Amino acid sequence: VRLEESGGGLVQAGSSLRLSCEASGSTFSIFTMGWNRQAPGKQRELVATIARSTGVTTYADSVKGRFTISRDNAKNTMYLEMTNLQPEDTAVYSCNAVSNYGVGYKEYWGQGTQVTVSS
After folding, report:
1. In the predicted model, is pLDDT for residue 10 greater than 90?
2. What is the Cα–Cα distance from 111 to 2, expressed in whole angstroms?
């Protein structure tokens, strides 16, 4: 499975951005996907997850009400709609996917896309 993010950029506080994560390869084995972020000097934070089949979502408290995760299985693409962005949202955003792999599972990661929010 290969993941490729897009949609990052430099925006002002209060703006919106939509990130995309396109999966390719053995996508049929993916059962959950998520968005993570890492700011300089900070630990990676799990932002949101979505179950591929049911669409059930989870969010970090820091983004609830502002970010929305969604997926389009026909396009093998996951999205993160971010609204009312704040400087503290500045980070490299990466998507990940977990797939069935034999009797266990395997995790895949994209390269990440930079989101910078100016005040």
Report:
1. yes
2. 10
pLDDT of residue 97: 97
Give the pair of three-digit tokens for residue 50: 């979505």
Question: What does the buried/exposed string (b/e) look like for 10-48 if buried means 16 or more CB atoms within 10 Å of the residue's CB?
Answer: ebeeeeebebbbbbeeebeebebbbbbbeeeeeeeeebb
Structure tokens at 95: 């998507």
Provide the residue type at 25 as one letter: G
What dihedral do alpha carbons 57, 51, 13, 8 form, nearest 10°?
180
Residues with Cβ within 8 Å of 29's Cβ and at least 6 positions away in sequence, in order, are 1, 99, 100, 101
Whether the pLDDT of residue 94 is over 90: the answer is yes
| pLDDT score for 102 | 87
In this structure, the dihedral spanned by the alpha carbons of residues 40, 5, 94 and 99, taken in order and rounded to 10 degrees, is -160
Return the structure tokens found at 76.
């093998």
Q: In the structure encoding, which two tokens stand for residue 31, read together? A: 């059962």
